[in-house]
Amino acid sequence: AIMTKMEDVLLLHEELLLILMILVKEKKKNVSPTANSVTWNQTHEEGLTWTYSDFAPECTANKSFGPVVAMGHEWIDIESVEYFVWVKSANQRIDLTAAPMMHVSLQTLFPNIDMVNVTNALNHGLDRVKVMMSSTLDTIKSTIDNWHLLTPSVLTFNWELDSSSMSVAIYQTAHFCYCDWYYHQFSGTKHYHVDNPTVDRSTRPSIRRALSLGHVQADNPENTKPSTSPWNQVFL
Question: What is the pTM of this model?
Answer without folding.
Answer: 0.68
